[in-house]
């Protein structure tokens, strides 16, 4: 079963380590130990760096998988065209409860990440480097690494570098959210989509990628593309960092060469011999069934080919003893609560999708299934960020992967299995208000309040649906479709306003004091030359 997973869980490696070199020697590689393990790193010219990234087919390891060399060249071209210096941003905002690979790298090998980021800053002529994090442990480790290199946010520094701390929220990890917070705003996506390569931090072209991507670049720059290509697959060389949790005996972060069978990775973590399904790519990822697991290998192309996703590198099997739709409902409800609450597809669509999944489990029949499919379809490609798209992909994958269980719930009396809660969701230790480097009060996470409708008083005025659309929808008769519901934290103020403004005084708000089931959630560890643009 799923054990509690700290910021730095057990780390394993298959084959020769690259990113995890030295982990068997010390808990954290400070600068002297980093240089002993990895050796010095010579700077590379701009176009030479881009060619290196292209030759090893380096793609972003944060989920989207965009080719790094294209991003690098796009930032350089924009900076040259506009005559401004670009900015480099490392995204270490790993805010899925089931993901820890970037957190492990920041805590244990921060200088490897900085190597890659500084190579890019030198090549682009950048004078600003920002590292975005959300946890206390990653903030401490990266700030210590900057100090070990003599880097600071001083205006007199040739390169200004600092750590930007934001709250732990799913949407904080979006590139636009991080850029907005660096500029002094809240860590949520803006209302319009703009390419960071064209206009990012302070309106300057910004090279933004996740922590593992920069670390992979640093490895390739040291050993060269030929040696780098000797590990892993021909078309996807190198290693991949995975976080394996869910129904496993030993949750872990593991570095594996591409091409390793997925079933072998699951065996290392102690997954069931025949899992009912495996969620690949995290909570914006896709399910694959037991038969497909035997066909899959660890690579972006392979997982895509069998209907899965490498995504953020999270792998979560579930056993035959739990209800897969019930497990997915918990995730769908969490995804709805993690919304930024600022655009319809998120704050209306995702709660509606979660209610649709709940209706299926409660015997809503074929109509409930069709309603869920329609909601998932409607939220895609309509949000201010990728959160609704990823959430819809997860829901659609659930429907596709577990057809037998779906039929049992839609056409019968259910599958008869309990929900064990093996998929980790809620984290302790959210970032406090006013954290160093910026931030905002935490408004997401588990619901603390529940709102009730008194049907003896309700007259169908409909103000509740106008004020609190996250919770209330009006049925064909003009009355709310629910009698009681959890209130997302970000919507608690609106819930109170709905109660106060109800003309019939038919709403009441109460603290949800029900005891919590024993959880398998993931707690936060409690316990630190001239520059040129490409081709110029």
Automatic annotation (TrEMBL):
EC nos: 1.6.5.11
Gene3D superfamilies tied to this protein: 3.10.20.600, 3.30.70.20, NADH-ubiquinone oxidoreductase 51kDa subunit, NADH-ubiquinone oxidoreductase 51kDa subunit, iron-sulphur binding domain
InterPro entries in alphabetical order: ComplexI_51kDa_subunit (IPR050837), Nuo51_FMN-bd (IPR011538), Nuo51_FMN-bd_sf (IPR037225), Nuop51_4Fe4S-bd (IPR019575), Nuop51_4Fe4S-bd_sf (IPR037207), Soluble_ligand-bd (IPR019554)
Alphabetized SUPFAM superfamilies for the sequence: 4Fe-4S ferredoxins (SSF54862), Nqo1 FMN-binding domain-like (SSF142019), Nqo1 middle domain-like (SSF142984), Nqo1C-terminal domain-like (SSF140490)
Any one GO molecular-function label of the UniProt entry: oxidoreductase activity
Cofactor entry: [4Fe-4S] cluster; FMN
Region named Disordered: 516-536
Top-level enzyme category: oxidoreductase
Pfam families in alphabetical order: Complex1_51K (PF01512), Fer4_15 (PF13459), NADH_4Fe-4S (PF10589), SLBB (PF10531)
Alphabetic keyword roster: 4Fe-4S, Flavoprotein, FMN, Iron, Iron-sulfur, Metal-binding, Oxidoreductase
Keyword set includes Phosphoprotein: no
Keyword Ubl conjugation on entry: no
Domain annotation NADH-ubiquinone oxidoreductase 51kDa subunit iron-sulphur binding: ranges: 325-369
Family the UniProt entry places it in: Belongs to the complex I 51 kDa subunit family.
Identification of the protein by name: NADH-quinone oxidoreductase chain 1
Species in which this protein is naturally found: Streptomyces cyanogenus
Gene designation: nqo1
